[in-house]
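Batch job 17 of 40 flagged for manual review because the log was empty.
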Amino acid sequence: MNCGDINILINRELDGRLTAQERQELYRHLTLCPECAAAYGEWQRLDALLRQRIGAVEPPADLAAGVMAALPEQAPLQPVKPVPIRRRKNRWLVLAAVAAGLLLATVWSGLFDASDQPPLAPDPQLAEEQEDPPQPAPPEEEDPVVAEEDPVEQGTEDPAAGEGEGQEQETEPPEVTPPPPPQTYNNGIPLPSVASGETSQGEYSLFTLSYQEYDALLPRIIDNTVTYYVDADGIYLEYQVLLDGSAAPAFVGETESLPTAAGIGGFTDESSSHDYSYITAWSPDGLTRAVNQGGDTPGLYLQPAQEQAGPVSVDGRGGGRLVCWAPDGNKVLFTDAADNLYLYYLAEQVCLTLYDGKAGSACWSGDSAAVVFSGLDAATGHYSIFRVSVP
């Protein structure tokens, strides 16, 4: 898929008309093409600005009448020639069956009404009887006893059956021992965890995806495969490894062109317009802008696109060179001035420390359940590729 096709997908994404497969292809291309990633950011900002500045337009009340009056007069409709019926024999058979049915109904009604035919002229006595119809005969003596019995025994539906005896008759499921609750902190948010891995980083565990004795950089995720680059004394080698780490990394080849961290993370560096670090990224729905701001008031800031006010601080740590939205729109990665990596939850308003050390570029899995990033490994002294599962 070329960049021209991606521009079409970007416009359809802003209109909310992409399928899940098309959205996956779009974000896969954006992680590989910095130009399209930058264009996507510009389109998001323009779309948000238009939504903010241009309100809904109400058409004039006489618009429909004016349009109809401007239309040319149409020629009168010509009568449609009826289509002849081909199967005439079947039509006569139907008519004969209808006639026979009417005759049978007449004879049948005559059998029951012949003994008591109503007079042709109105009868006052009969009219009085019709106005006040006779009441049905009182039930026999045993009927009240039956009526007083439990309606459930009579086969009728009891509205309270689901609340009382009906539930007691149901077979209760066998008792299942619940699993132990996950370790939690920060108002009960479950801790991130991984399926395997030996290195513990305090609140969570990391799994190392790279094994080379060189710096591993710029990871990105396509489907369930992580692609990253190894700086082997100035020669960049491309490797791929499965997201779950079930196999060793595979060498792909040498490369001279590397993706950018901004293209992978989907953010824009606007520091040149300020006297400090100022990294911005729009949410996947284009309604909220995240700002990783340095300077005298560092921190992570959020700003709704529809509001005129400036960004609002949600965490006092910030000032790094990274801010990255999860595809689900509820989680934001960002770094501070020392390149420590943090994870902020919008709905829960909770911030986790993901990596207490120097973190490089980072990216998300498509289901927003895993973060992959490059980080300086204190054990080897080189940057390694790490994966961590997040709640």
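Reviewer: the log was empty due to a logging misconfiguration, but the result itself is present. The longest helix spans residues 88-113. Unflagging and moving on to job 18.
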